[in-house]
Write a structure and sequence with these properties.
Elements (H helix, E strand, L loop, with lengths): L1 E10 L2 E11 L4 E5 L6 H8 L7 E6 L2 E3 L4 H6 L2 E4 L11 H6 L14 H6 L1 H5 L10 H14 L4 E5 L7 H17 L3 E5 L3 H7 L2 E6 L2 E7 L5 H8 L2
Parallel strand pairs: 3-8, 3-9, 6-7, 7-8
Antiparallel strand pairs: 1-2, 1-4, 4-5, 9-10
């Protein structure tokens, strides 16, 4: 569903990503791993159109996107849940969800019951402001908002960061369910090793802006992956 080839990215004169290749298949979770500062978040931002990449190609479902901005990427089916969640604090949960309508035709602009099936707490807090939610509840809201747009590719940036353990388990179950439904490709950037290892079908490990490992889970041992992630 998502194919990234030879992607490079610069911040001013500094090159951050060096020829990144990444494949994310429908019905699978691709985990992008590595220590702090290796380019994981920059890669997601480039794919999501948050920061223009310098070179390489990006395609969704066989359609090449020519250095898309955020709007073009979203309309092509890419949904981004950023690190830090970025919910609108003064808007209600319901209003936050409705911001996901932007890429949908007018006749489809409704919140599906499925969203509240996945995240029951959001139904209970539908009329509360986003800023009044706990960190874990905000993370659930951010994922739900992304799903409103009916994406073909879901990018998740550090979904366990600052979240209490019981909510981490709930989020893990939702991600696994989305994978099992076989309708979207999921790219997961995550530093919680066990969480990523348990969920992922494929791993891409970055170090200093380059890929140092890219393989399916069946071909990677836990020890080898941990050694690459810890470089």
């Amino acid at each position: 569903m998502l194919q990234v080839s030879g992607l490079t990215l610069h911040y001013g004169q500094s090159q951050i990503l060096h020829g990144i290749d990444l494949t994310a298949r429908t019905g699978q979770i691709t985990a992008v791993m590595g220590t702090n500062g290796v380019g994981k978040t920059s890669l997601l931002k480039a794919i999501a159109g948050r920061h223009p990449f310098s070179g390489g190609t990006l395609s969704v479902d066989g359609r090449t996107l020519d250095r898309p901005g955020a709007v073009q990427a979203a309309r092509a089916g890419i949904a981004y849940v950023p690190q830090g969640r970025e919910v609108f604090p003064l808007m209600t949960v319901e209003e936050n969800l409705e911001t996901g309508f932007a890429c949908l035709p007018p006749g489809d602009r409704r919140i599906p019951d499925r969203i509240f099936d996945l995240f029951p707490v959001l139904a209970e807090m539908k009329h509360r402001r986003g800023g009044d939610l706990s960190g874990g509840q905000q993370q659930q809201l951010a994922i739900a908002r992304a799903l409103i747009a009916r994406p073909r590719v879901l990018l998740l940036g550090e979904p366990t960061e600052g979240i209490q353990p019981n909510i981490i388990k709930q989020i893990g179950r939702v991600i696994a369910q989305l994978r099992s439904e076989g309708e979207i490709a999921i790219v997961l950037v995550e530093q919680f090793f066990d969480f990523a290892f348990d969920l992922a079908d494929r791993f891409t490990v970055l170090n200093r802006g380059s890929v140092v490992l890219s393989d399916d889970k069946a071909s990677v041992t836990r020890a080898d992956l941990l050694s690459k992630v810890s470089i």
